UniProtKB/TrEMBL annotation, chain A:
UniProt keyword annotation of Aminoacyl-tRNA synthetase present: no
Protein's name in the database: UBC core domain-containing protein
Gene3D superfamilies with a match to the protein in the record: Ubiquitin Conjugating Enzyme
UniProt-listed InterPro entries: Ub_conjugating_enzyme, UBC, UBQ-conjugating_enzyme/RWD
UBC core domain residues: 5-155
Assigned keywords, A-Z: Ubl conjugation pathway
UniProt xrefs under PROSITE patterns: UBC_2 (PS50127)
Automatic annotation (TrEMBL), chain B:
Superkingdom as given in the UniProt entry: Eukaryota
Protein name: RING-CH-type domain-containing protein
Bias (Low complexity) ranges: 252-274, 376-400, 409-428
Localization: Membrane
Region (Disordered): 239-279, 330-355, 370-432, 529-551
Record membrane topology: Multi-pass membrane protein
Naturally occurring in which organism (per UniProt): Humicola insolens
Length: 155, 551
């Protein structure tokens, strides 16, 4: 049930996403049930993110949606990493929703995108997380594990 | 950093299917996709799921204790999700047992630990008692009433010795606050039971009177030497004593008058030492922690204490670390570690060779180098004036005063131990040029406090070695030293000797630390920053001079 489990669910999601997506979110590619790419942009006039489009990469494990997908911003020539106090400059996102604790199967690709969208919209700080440079230099962990680590620190 | 709580919490619009179909919020399949599966409504909200999807999700949740803290809840409406399972007796028993056991195991652990501490403390107490009063006496005391309750009571008493010593060391005011009232009550009890004071005192009376002795000693000592000590402390910290260099001179010369004057006072110090033959160990330990009522005591403590605090706080900012602020003047026990912290040779006029250490509380203490004799002329004179009172004081008061100097170095049997320990502490903790670290200071102080019984014993043995035999040998031997045959002098029993020795030690230590502090001030006065030879610099004549020296 493991591989088909995620695949079935993703199939359903894809089916819905390809029909309709909220404004500001676009599906770029979903060739398989392991990695999807989406573009998001901020809808309002936030000067930090005006006229920019950001690329999101979703990676799904075979246990999705029991486990959260791995979501990062990807840097491309025309796709910068948005500046935000919870987004590292290598694209890793520090959001409880994407960690083991905050995740729930109620979420889906679309809802994650919308959460990120609103996270950017609501931000007015033109800064990276504290310790960004060292983190980016030293980090070899996968985002999921990092997230977990932060949660441990918080509790 | 904390991950942000996503405030825009978007619940996916799960129902993909049309109206009257079930849709599993986990796998998003509907009735037609999965015809034969069981559906559940885990919570009041509209979420529904396949039973096995739900169980899978729940199993995942259960694997993480953090997420289970709030119980199993629906992610959308936060209502509790209940899982039913058939009752299984084995599982239930195991779970119940585990719950109960988890509740009790911390208590058991605490019990083990405290039991261990109690046993260790009691063992220390017994060892201290044996050293202090001699093994026979200690055994006799312990075995006198071989009932279990009495034994336990004694164990408890013994186990309070070590904490008692430490409390007296670190929180003398608390210790005395507890100690004095109970000592008064104990005196009353003794009198009430027709056990009147006579000379030489019984151990009971010795114990009862020791706190008073201690307080009066502190009082007297700070009365006599307090001002001098404060001046020295100030000078040592580079604060203007009372203004200028003259002020310092004045401060130092005060030493002389004070040294000359205090003849009555030292007598007083000794007197209690002689007739209230008790001592910090006995009081602080065995009779434990008792208290204080008397106003005069509070005054003694508070006003000197406040002055000290004022000074020390001012100084703090400049020198950083500091511990045990005002303790040294006020409380004799407090100086425990001052005296034998260092084992350098303090060049002494009297030919004493003792490690002296002061100003623990200053945190930056200097060390004197053994090779250098820093005694300047003036210093040589001053101490000469200053010294006699020590000797003079002690002699009239009690015949047991040996010449103070030799004690420490000469006791080879027992004494070296504390010294070595302290030395090691110092060496390990800090390079020789700087003062010991805070940790080393603390460990010095604890170790010295705990070795106090040994020090008392050593001093007692020293007294026995130095004094005429008739004073130290029991004329009447008896099986129960504190009951039968009445000795004619305090020094004829080991506990008495230890007691007097301990008192003597405290007095000598205080005086010595004061003296060393004085010498330190003297040395400080001659301090100079060393010129460093510089490479020659062409040009200005001023630097040229320096350069030529280096060349």
């Amino acid at each position: 049930m493991s591989a088909p489990f995620a695949a079935k669910r993703l199939g359903k999601e894809l089916q819905k996403i390809s029909n309709s997506l909220p404004p500001g979110i676009e599906l770029v590619s979903a060739d398989n049930f392991e990695e999807w790419l989406l573009d998001i942009r901020v809808l309002d006039d936030n000067p930090l993110y005006r006229n920019e489009i950001y690329r999101l990469r979703f990676r799904f494990s075979s246990t999705y949606p029991i486990e959260p997908p791995e979501v990062v911003f990807v840097k491309l020539p025309d796709r910068p990493i948005p500046i935000h106090p919870h987004i590292y400059s290598n694209g890793i996102i520090c959001l409880d929703l994407l960690g083991h604790q905050g995740w729930s199967p109620v979420q889906n690709v679309e809802s994650v995108c919308m959460s990120l969208q609103s996270m950017l919209t609501g931000n007015s700080k033109n800064e990276r997380p504290p310790g960004d440079e060292e983190f980016v230099r030293g980090n070899r962990l996968r985002p999921r594990d990092i997230e977990f680590y932060y949660h441990d620190n918080d509790v | 950093m904390s991950p942000p709580r996503s405030n825009a919490h978007v619940i996916g619009n799960a129902p993909i299917a049309t109206n009257d179909q079930h849709v599993c919020f986990i796998c998003l399949q509907n009735d037609t996709d999965t015809p034969n599966r069981t559906w559940v409504n885990p919570c009041p909200c509209s979420l529904e799921a396949h039973n096995d999807c739900m169980l899978r999700w729940i199993a995942e949740m259960e694997s993480s204790p953090q997420r289970m803290k709030e119980g199993l809840r629906c992610q959308a409406c936060k209502s509790l999700i209940t899982v039913e399972e058939p009752f299984d007796c084995v599982v239930a028993i195991q779970d119940a047992w585990l719950r109960r056991y988890s509740r009790w195991s911390p208590c058991l652990l605490g019990l083990f630990v405290s039991g261990g501490c109690f046993a260790a403390s009691a063992a220390y107490g017994m060892a201290a008692f044996k050293i202090f009063a001699g093994p026979e006496v200690a055994n006799m005391w312990f075995m006198r009433r071989p009932r279990l309750s009495a034994m336990f009571c004694k164990m408890w008493l013994l186990s309070t010795i070590a904490p008692g010593i430490l409390v007296m060391r670190w929180m003398p005011s608390v210790g005395m606050t507890l100690l004095l009232p109970s000592s008064v009550m104990y005196c009353a009890h003794l009198v009430a039971t027709d056990n009147f004071f006579e000379w030489p005192p019984s151990p009971q009376w010795a114990m009862a009177l020791l706190p008073c002795l201690h307080v009066s000693y502190s009082h007297i000592f700070s009365d006599i030497f307090g001002p001098l000590d404060r001046r020295l402390t100030r000078a040592l910290r580079g604060l203007p004593p009372d203004g200028s260099a003259e002020g310092r001179e004045a401060a130092l010369q005060d030493a002389a008058p004070e040294a000359a004057a205090p003849a009555p006072a030292p007598a007083a110090q000794q007197e209690p030492a002689a007739n209230g033959p008790q001592n910090g160990w006995f009081a602080g330990g065995v009779s434990g922690l008792f208290g204080n009522i008397s106003q005069w005591f509070i005054e003694t403590f508070l006003d000197t204490a406040e002055m000290e605090v004022g000074i020390e706080v001012a100084v703090d900012e400049r020198y950083g670390v500091r511990i045990l602020a005002n303790a040294d003047i006020l409380d004799s026990d407090d100086d425990d570690n001052d005296a034998d912290n260092d084992d350098e040779d303090a060049p002494d006029i009297a030919g004493e060779r003792r490690g002296g250490e002061i100003a623990l509380e200053t945190g930056y203490r200097m060390r004197q180098h053994p090779a250098v004799d820093p005694v300047p002329d003036q210093a040589a004179q001053q101490p000469a004036n200053y010294q006699p009172p020590q000797a003079g004081q002690q002699q009239p008061a009690a015949q047991q005063n040996p010449p103070p100097p030799p004690q420490q170095p000469q006791e080879d049997g027992n004494q070296p131990r504390p010294n070595n320990n302290n030395e090691n502490n110092n060496n390990n903790a800090a390079p020789p040029t700087s003062g010991p670290s805070l940790l080393a200071l603390i460990s010095n102080s604890i170790v010295t406090s705990l070795l106090f019984p040994l020090i008392c014993y050593s001093m007692g043995e020293l007294l026995r070695a130095l004094l005429p035999r008739r004073l130290t040998t029991a004329t009447v031997t008896s099986s129960l030293p504190w009951r039968a045959g009445r000795p004619i002098g305090l020094l004829q029993q080991q506990w008495g000797r230890s007691l007097v020795g301990g008192c003597l030690w405290v007095v000598l230590r205080d005086l010595l630390s004061l003296y060393v502090k004085y010498r330190r001030v003297q040395v400080r006065g001659k301090r100079r920053v060393k010129n460093v030879p510089r490479k020659q610099v062409r040009g200005s004549s001023g630097t040229g001079v320096v350069g030529s020296r280096s060349g």
